[in-house]
Amino acid sequence: MADLLATSARYIDNDIYEGAGLVNRPTTELSEVADGIALIEAFSHVVAFRTGDGLVLFDTSLEAFGQGVLKSLRKWSDEPVAHICYTHGHADHVGGTGAFVCEACEKGHPRPRITGHENVLPRFRRYEATNGYNFTINARQFAPAAELRMGGQGTPGPRRFGPDPWVDPDVTFRDAMEFRSGDLRFELRHAIGETDDHLWAWVPEHKAICSGDFVTWVFPNAGNPQKVQRYPLEWAKALREMAAKEPELLLPAHGLPIAGKARIAGVLDTIASALEFLVSRSLQMMNDGARLDDLIHGVKLPAHFMDKPYLKPVYDEPEFIIHNIWRLYGGWYDGNPSRLKPAPDAVVAAEIARLAGGVAKLCIRAEELAATGREEDMRLACHLAEAATLAEPENRDAHMSRANVYGARRKAELSLMSKGVFGWAERESAAKAGKNDL
After folding, report:
1. In a 3-state reduction of DSSP, which class is residue 60?
2. Would you state the pLDDT for residue 1?
3. In what order do the strands lie in the sheet with 184-190?
4. Are 58 and 221 in contact (CB under 8 A)?
5. Average of per-residue pLDDT values in the chain
6. Where are the alpha helices (H) located in 222-344, listed in sequence order?
7. pLDDT score at 361
8. I need a surface site. Which of 72, 85, 197, 244 has the fewest CB within 10 A?
9. What are the chain's domains?
10. pLDDT score recorded for residue 435
11. Torsion from C-alpha of 209, 214, 219, 220, nearest 10 degrees
């Protein structure tokens, strides 16, 4: 059993970073982090409380992890699961619920009472309406193992996003609610941040907070280019409300649990400050009449934030959050009049190729730029490689060049989201070029 609290203390106190895989381990290993409190590491963690009147769980991880989580939990406690609280409705937090419902039925126990914010229900219905779209974007983001991770179906299999079926909450609330189980009181608070249906919980008897995805040991997932609106300033507000409770134990849904009042306060303040900085600088430029392009290339988060072991941009990144800030406060128009009612991408690309003297010249220049390894050159290289294949979609040489450029870009990136999108483009063009071994 890993000493998760000692590990997190060492990382935080010494600003040590040893890789995201060391703090986010989908092992289904259970660690008792305090008397009567366990954390089961999975794709998203499951936090369990012994109450003397049944177990209270926060989240159930992905459907594919449900049985493994249940098996680990039963080595720790044979108490029936009395309550399941969804911190929010993402598939990696609710997918394993079916395993616990089935266990209760098989053992003749009462079905666990499932609690979530009122917006969880419309989220599930939206996922059902956009199943194919969500399958595609999650395959792109988490490729190549996305079918297993996102649907628990394995590959090949149905293009199913999320559990089958989604298990709706029995009890919902709008702003706040409390319930007791045995000797413990659970205070649930709604806050928007990564989602509009998020809750965090305060357990006063343990001075503990279940923070869900408000703390993840990576840079906050407040940008995610393929997902719906996120709320960075409200996210920061929630973190400051948690800090006001003066917690002594913080139990996140991803990454390591944290112990110690001062240590937790420092982490919450640092994450909140980073988000507040991005919002304030972006709004300042927007108020001065800047375009989205100006914000993307002009708002830079100070390096001291990125040096923290729990703020590495290995999943989302600050640049993507700026896009979400613009979308939230400014809408979809980016300030460039040519993009208000643009010509089709393929038409623009064909004209660029004609002016350049042909698609081959675009490809040569794109690969030259990518070969420098400089970020600014690689950004431009992607534009040229994309234009080449848009201008001549059946040109195998153009697709091979595009695959090479995006392959180089993927290797140079740090965040999973960037790697996922660029890697998807690389494989797409490699297949069209007849190279199927990527």
Report:
1. coil
2. 53
3. 176-181, 184-190, 199-203, 208-212, 249-252, 258-259
4. no
5. 95
6. 232-244, 261-287, 292-298, 303-306, 318-330
7. 98
8. 244
9. 4-271 (3.60.15.30), 343-432 (1.25.40.880)
10. 86
11. -170
